[in-house]
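Progress note, sequence design subtask.
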C-alpha cells in the first residue's frame, strides 16, 4: 500500500488580486461572499477546531464538503480540512487546503495549496475546480461582480 501523499502530488495554485489582505480574507470566510463567487456558502466561525460546511445556495441547503478549521490567522493564513463526503466515515486522513494571503502594496498574492489528496481523480477535479473558483473570486474583488457565467461550467461542458 502506498501513502497517498507520496503517490498523488499536492495541488498548488497562485493568483494575484488587486485587493487588500483583509478583503481577500473576508471573501474566503464570509458565507454571503462565498455564495456569490462559489455557488456555496462556506459556513463556520473560522476558529481553530471548529467545523465548516460548504453549503449549496440553490435552496436545497445540501452540504457538499465539510471540514475542520486547523489554523486561522486573519488576514494571511487559513488552513482547513476538506472532505467531499460529509456523511461517510473517514477511512483516511482528510485532504488539507491552505490559503496563504501575502499583501504587497495594492495587491495580494493568494496561494492555495491542496494536499493529502486521496487519488488522481480528486487531483483532476480540483485542478479544474480551484482555478474556476479563484477566477470568480478575483473578478468579484476587482470588479464588484462575478464572471458572467460560472467558470466551472466550462469544464463540465467539455468533458
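Output:
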Amino acid at each position: 500500500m502506498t501513502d497517498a501523499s507520496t503517490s498523488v502530488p499536492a495541488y498548488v495554485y497562485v493568483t494575484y488580486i488587486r485587493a487588500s489582505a483583509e478583503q481577500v480574507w473576508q471573501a474566503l470566510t464570509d458565507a454571503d461572499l462565498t455564495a456569490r463567487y462559489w455557488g456555496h456558502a462556506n459556513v463556520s466561525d473560522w476558529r481553530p477546531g471548529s467545523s465548516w460546511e460548504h453549503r449549496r445556495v440553490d435552496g436545497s441547503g445540501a452540504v457538499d464538503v465539510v471540514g475542520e478549521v486547523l489554523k486561522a490567522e486573519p488576514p494571511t493564513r487559513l488552513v482547513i480540512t476538506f472532505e467531499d463526503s460529509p456523511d461517510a466515515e473517514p477511512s483516511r486522513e482528510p485532504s488539507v487546503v491552505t490559503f496563504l494571503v501575502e499583501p504587497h502594496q495594492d495587491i495580494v498574492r493568494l496561494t492555495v495549496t491542496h494536499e493529502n489528496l486521496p487519488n488522481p481523480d480528486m487531483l483532476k477535479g480540483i485542478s479544474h475546480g480551484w482555478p474556476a473558483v479563484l477566477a470568480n473570486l478575483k473578478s468579484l474583488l476587482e470588479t464588484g461582480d462575478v464572471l458572467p457565467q460560472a467558470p466551472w461550467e466550462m469544464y463540465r461542458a467539455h468533458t
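Residues 1-5 have pLDDT under 50 and may be disordered. Work on this subtask will continue into the next period as scheduled.
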